[in-house]
Structures are given as C-alpha cells and as structure tokens.
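Notes to self after the Tuesday call (sharing in case useful).
The group wants a holo model before anyone commits to mutagenesis around the pocket. I volunteered. Ligand is F0G. Logging inputs and output together so the record is complete.
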Amino acid sequence: MSFRTIIEPFRIHSTQAIRHTSAEEREAALRRAGYNLFGLHGDEVLIDLLTDSGTGAMSSRQWAAMMDGDESYAGSRSFYRFQDVVRDITGLQEVIPTHQGRAAERILFHVMVKPGQVVPNNTHFDTTRANIEFNGAEARDLVIPEGRVPASRHPFKGNMDVAALEATIKDLGSERVPLVMVTVTNNSGGGQPVSLANLRAVRAVCDHHRLALYLDACRFAENAYFIKLREPGYADVPVKRIAQEMFALADGCTMSAKKDGLANIGGFLAMNDPEVAAQCRNLLILTEGFPTYGGLAGYDLEAVATGLEEVLDEEYLKYRLRSTAYLAEKAEAAGMPVVQPPGGHAVYLDAKALLPHIPPSQYPAQALAVELYRVGGVRGVEIGSVMFGKALPDGTDSPAPLELVRLAVPRRTYTQSHVDYVGEVIAEAARRKDAIRGFRIVDQAPWLRHFTARFEPITL
Ligand code: F0G
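Result:
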C-alpha cells in the first residue's frame, strides 16, 4: 500500500518562533529600507524565501555530531571524517575545506585562470562569474537554448550546449580555456538539472582538448534525484550511485555546503590533481586557515559531514523536490505566471507576464517582490533589471532579458501550511496586479547594486 501524500520525513524537535507584523509595521519597514528587501531585519519577515543558502534546519544527528567536534588546529579528527565523506561521494582525493563556496571559487580560479582566458559553464552563478572576472578572464554561459526560455519544459534545462562548447574551444584555442565548469543544478537558470548524458558529452569534449572539468556542485544531490526521476535507465539506481557517477566524470569541484551540505556555513574544493591541490592549499593558508580546517570550526566540519550523508536520503530528496513543486503549483493556482518546470530549490515568478503595464525601466520584479512582502510578510528576491540591468552614462538602464522573483525554499524549515499561506499571499498580490506601480532607483552602488540600492515608488 502506498499513500498519495508525500510527508516531511522528520518530526519537529526544536522550534523557532516567527512573528506576524501589522500592515503598518511592514509599510514602515519598507520605507526605512528604501523598498529594498535586503534592508529588512529578519524579524520583520514572516516567511523568508530570500535564499536556500545556509537557511536550512539541521538535524538532531548534525547537532549531536557537532558536540563531538575536534577543535585541534592541525589534524582534527573532524577533518578526517569530513574528508572520508567527501571522498566517498565524489571520488576526488584532494579535499580542501573552505568557509563557503565562493572561497573555493576564489582559490581555484586564482590558481587556474589567467587574464584573457575564457571559462565556459552552463550558467555561472554571480560569485563564480565575479571571481573569474576578478582574475581578468571571461565567464561565458553556454546553456542549451531551451534553458533560456521560461515556458520550455525540457527535462534537463540546465544542460550545456555541447556544440557551442566545442565551437568555443575551437574558436579560442584550448590554451585560452583553463577549465570547463558545469553547475548542478543550474541555479541562475532556475535550479534546472543537468543529465548524466550531457555530463558525459561535456567530458568527451574536455578529453578531446585535454581540459579539466569542474562541477559547481552546490546542489548535486537535488541534481542526482532529478536524474533518477527523469533520465532513462536511472529509476532504480540509488541516488548516491548517481551522484558518484556525476562526480566520476569530473576532475574536481567547488561546493557550498550551505546548500546540499545541509549546514549553515561551510564549503570545500576537491580535485584529483595533487599539484593544483598543493597550490590551492598555499593560498588557503593565507586567508582561510590551515588545510585541516580551512576557516571552519571542527564542529562545522562535523555538521557538513553528517549533512552530506543525510542529503542523499531518498525520502528526503523526494520530499524536497515535491515541496518545491508544491509551491509552484500553489503559485500557478493563485493566478501567478511561473517559470516551468519548477527547479529543485526555488520557484520563479514571472513579473513581466503579470505586470505588463510596468516597463523594465520601472523594475516590475522589484515591484512584485515588494508587494509580496507588503501583503503578507513574504520575502523573495528580484532577479531582473535591478540585479542584472546596468546603469548607463545617460542615466537610463539597460534592461535584463527576464523579470523574475525567486522564491527559494530553505531545506527542512517550512511546513506545508507555511507554503499554503505563501500561496494565499501570492493570490492576493495577483489580485492587486493592476494597482501595483513601479519604482525608480534613487541611490545605487557601482556594482552588485541590488544589495544596497534605495528605491522610490512611482506615483502618478
Ligand atoms: N555556486 C552556486 C550555484 C550558488 O548558488 C552559490 C550561492 C555559490 C556558488 C556560492 O556559494 O554562497 O557559499 O559562497 N548561492 C546562494 C543563492 C547565495 O542564494 O543562490 P556561497
């Protein structure tokens, strides 16, 4: 007998209170923050869907393991446990802990990337792109064309365009390509998975040109479960074996343990090449710490090691992907246009489709994100012309191709009734759509402006 309802595969052992705010309090908070949701205090938010990074709940086993953390500066037992777990899943022999994903990126690119080179990826995450550009190189996105079309229902919208990769390498010459990266799942493209067939094809191109292939592995377990669900031949393969197969195709990886490490902080860099590893460790010591802790406490290493074991539990992954899909269904039922199919960690609302009366120059996705907070204290993040548009010298903006609001789902944190509530808030925002107005930016930083920009509502 199997039942239809997919339940949270845990019971709640410890709770954290969340507080309702009044409409007046939310309006005052918005004014104080210059209508930028990054400026809100956490306590002013009821349901926080800003990010799935470091915001999940840890298990009783993780907390128990933390009590047993070894804080030895050198040779911590917790490091050797961490290394064993990472080696078991990835097969990669050189394991370098870092405080989070971007530290792994900074170190790897400093070692491998030179000015004038080009790093291909399906889609670079912001920090990956920034760290490549910081080294004077270009970060080039080569996702398949379907991956750029919100309405396309391709099962592996995160796949790399292999022909474009081959053409890029031929065009540049392999000496200008220091490594190839693939992001699993493809966060910037909507949390969309990459198939094993695609990874194998990318591997073949890398072999042909003698290039290293690195995975940006933040959400590797969610990607592996999508493969189990969608790729022919994998329905009966244990998800851990699928993950091992993914990593076996790579020469190394960067990892933010704040996602599929199920921890609040942590990350790592791993590879097989001992010479690259030695150079990375030299840099690690400069800013992160000794190679057996890399900027983490011994108890953090324990939390991540246990998290990496737990994340491959198939009951957990089934619930995880289902709960994201459930939020997407609620949003659609509430009359909100949504990017399809939903990704592993987030649902993307299409503000351009909902608010055609607001031009990109007046930031429709910002307007929708503000409205969700105003209506019910729900915080998402704008992924549109505020984040990706550029201020031009004449005072206007170059618009972004899409105007989205990302609702990212923290792991093991909110229950189904929380999501039902978010569905009601979305429905109310959709009902008010004709009354929603755009914004103008009154103050902005020269880069990464979305974090600190201040806005003013446009009133006619
Ligand atoms: N790569 C990907 C695909 C990511 O999604 C992130 C973080 C990073 C690298 C960097 O990791 O934050 O530990 O330094 N993404 C978060 C998000 C911040 O909200 O999507 P980090």
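Two things stood out.
The domain at 23-52+313-457 is CATH 3.90.1150.10 (Aspartate Aminotransferase, domain 1).
The radius of gyration is 22 Å.
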